[in-house]
Amino acid sequence: MRGFLFALLFSVLATPAFGQTAVPTHDGGRIAVTVKSSSVKDKSVLVEARHGRKDFELECTLTVAPCTALAAGKYWMVRLGSSTGIYMDCENAYVYSEPFNGKNDRKLGEYCLLQDPD
Asked: Is the distance from CB of 35 to CB of 56 less than 8 angstroms?
């Protein structure tokens, strides 16, 4: 019984550290982006996008994450908090199809931001 309680306590305490899931930094922290093009090379997808007047790039790995080569068009992007997400060497972001209403949103992938869109 003592071993069971220890294992239960460890699993509860370890879940936030090891089982962390990526969540948006705050509700409504989405920005409208326009995808200009996507390309697939080896197992990586490179997405060229625009927010306002600034061009930026996103990248994802087909074998690691939910990753989609996005067609040209309008999307919503939600930037994730620091140390959140599957790509550890960059800021992560989710990309959603339009419309983005908070209920039946379709997440198309998790991407690494190669440049800051702001």
From this structure: no
pLDDT in tens, 91-118: 999 999 877 666 667 889 999 999 888 8
Summarize pLDDT for 54-66 with one digit per residue, the tens. 999 999 999 987 8
Contacts of 86 (CB under 8 A, 6+ apart): 22, 64, 65, 92, 110
- Residue 18 within any structural domain of the chain: no
Within a domain: 51: yes
For residue 25, what are the CA distances in angstroms to 5, 31, 72?
33, 13, 26
Banded pLDDT at 39 (limits 50, 70, 90) = very high
Give the domain extent around 102. 24-113
74 lies in a domain?
Answer: yes
Residue 92 neighbours by CB distance under 10 Å: 23
9 domain residue, yes or no: no
Give how many domains the chain has, as a whole number.
Answer: 1
Is the separation of the CB atoms in 33 and 51 below 8 Å? Answer: yes
